[in-house]
Amino acid sequence: MHPTLRRAWTDLQLRRMASSTKPIMLGPWRSEVGFESLYWLPFIRYAARAHGIPADRFVTVTRGGARTLYGTRGIDLYQLRSVDAVRLENQYDWEQTGLQKQMRLTDWDRTVLREAAAQVLGRTERYLTLHPSLMYWALEPFWEEQAGTQHLAALTDYQLIPKPKRVEVELPAHYVAVKFYDRATFPGRDPAVQHWVRDLVSVLGAQTPIVLLSGTPGVDDHADIHVEHPSIVSLPAVDPTENLAQQIAVIAHAEAFVGTYGGLAQLALRMGIPSASFYSQWGGTAHAHLALSSWLSKRTKTPFLAGSLDDGAAWRRLLSLPMAAA
User: Fold this and answer.
1) Are 239 and 220 in contact (CB under 8 A)?
2) Among 179, 200, 184, 296, which residue's Cα sits nearest to residue 246?
């Protein structure tokens, strides 16, 4: 379907929701935080602003405490399903579609929403559903490079995400949030990657305290790459329902985020936090996400440095050149 027709059909669905007074269940969101902050939240904000849907009609179902990004009532997905159950459903999506994206409203999603609505609204109250599949379908022409930012901007609202409160943990007054994790673009077992991470953490740690964003085992989408330095401040382990909430709050009040190129760097950008993130090989991710991040960086005047290990080495060489004699 042509992008213009997709926009028109999407707006028609949102107008129908706006014409009702029923609560709107958002989600359940069970995918990565990068897509959540870079696309899903702006899509919801667009729906609310463009179609006059008040925030008190929304009921959010997301995971890991990420509801702190929405400013709505709701319930955590991990209160309704185990971490393993959520991961299995994501794996089922992958097997059916070849994508770990919520491209369709599944029976599993419907059941979760019914249970969430019963707990938040009461068992007799009826509701509407705004599922991620509508957002994925509406914005697909942008990711497939069939349409540019004009298409994306017509269906999103990229106001900065308000920063949540600080975590109730004693942290340095000023620090850099760091998280390096294994993914297709940044393989953690690659000796070159391991050496790069150790070297960069050493340089950072010599200048500033580091708060390490270590995820709860089995909850994060990607395994952490182990790092050590005397300047590192570690966070306490938390329940899966607070795993992302803790990391979001730490990033929100950091001087900067440094780590693997991906979702957390994009989240930092969306909250107005400078970031530097890296990949060792490009693949397994769309260039459209990087292009959008660059566009948002310029629009919000938030530094977003993303590059390969070779790019990083070039930055270091250039920035460490001696000043010319006066």
Assistant:
1) no
2) 179
pTM strictly above 0.90: yes
Edge-to-edge strands, sheet with 58-62: 73-76, 58-62, 24-26, 128-130
Q: What is the pLDDT along the chain (326 residues), one digit of tens a residue?
A: 899 999 999 999 999 999 999 999 999 999 999 999 999 999 999 999 999 999 999 999 999 999 999 999 999 999 999 999 999 999 888 887 777 789 999 999 999 999 999 999 998 899 999 999 999 999 999 998 888 899 999 999 999 999 999 988 889 999 999 999 999 899 999 999 999 999 999 999 999 999 999 866 556 667 899 899 999 999 998 999 999 999 999 999 999 999 999 999 999 999 999 999 999 988 778 889 999 999 999 999 999 999 999 998 888 888 776 655 54
Long-range contacts of 113-116 (CB under 8 A, 24+ apart): 113/25, 113/27, 113/28, 113/61, 115/80, 116/25, 116/28, 116/59, 116/61, 116/74, 116/75, 116/80
